[in-house]
């Protein structure tokens, strides 16, 4: 497996530039850490078993920007697998984060929070792609400010178990791309921005 950070030790990894790439094996886990992917850098993993962001050892963050790519195929992906902390994944400025192979869970354990920030402007929007996002025993947040949420499969409950206030639209608005699939969103969506 590939691990960033541990209890009491901060881990920082930056994948920067078109020549920079990291291919993950079966398992990925991060705690007390920051992962940044930018300027066409790539982090990818195919046929993975687990991809965990934030563990019992501490929270983690991921930033994907400036045409960076995070491309994960995993049977079990978690954003927030720790108690009492928020684990942000921010995608902006033409960056793309893809999670396929199954749903991704936000706030998997009680007390944890998985937060997706989707930012961008015309011609440079952050994109998050997945089959489904499901909130676990903790909390899940999606904050749109000009970014795109894109479906990778038909799903009758695309944003599952989000509470009121869990999905918000900032001034830049939010974009939901069905990508040709049939999706239904029952989660309440709040905020001053426009949903497209």
What does this molecule look like?
The radius of gyration is 15 Å and the shape is globular. The chain has strands at residues 2-4, 11-16, 21-23, 27-30, 33-38, 42-48, 50-53, 60-65, 69-74, 77-79, 86-92, 96-100, 104-106, 113-121, 124-125, 127-130, 133-135, 139-145, 148-151, 159-160, 167-169, 175-177, 189-191. With 196 residues, the chain is an all-beta fold. The protein is built from no helices and 23 strands. The model has no long low-confidence stretch (mean pLDDT 96). β14 (113-121) and β15 form a beta hairpin. The strands form 3 sheets. Strands 2, 5, 8, 11, 14, 15, 18, 21 and 23 form a 9-stranded mixed beta sheet that branches. Strands 1-4-7-10-13-17-20 form a 7-stranded parallel beta sheet, with no helix packed on it. It has a 7-stranded parallel beta sheet with strand order 3-6-9-12-16-19-22, with no helix packed on it.
In short:
By secondary structure, the chain is mainly beta.
Describe the secondary-structure layout:
Elements lengths: L1 E3 L6 E6 L4 E3 L3 E4 L2 E6 L3 E7 L1 E4 L6 E6 L3 E6 L2 E3 L6 E7 L3 E5 L3 E3 L6 E9 L2 E2 L1 E4 L2 E3 L3 E7 L2 E4 L7 E2 L6 E3 L5 E3 L11 E3 L5
Parallel strand pairs: 1-4, 2-5, 3-6, 4-7, 5-8, 6-9, 7-10, 8-11, 9-12, 10-13, 11-14, 12-16, 13-17, 14-18, 16-19, 17-20, 18-21, 19-22, 21-23
Antiparallel strand pairs: 14-15
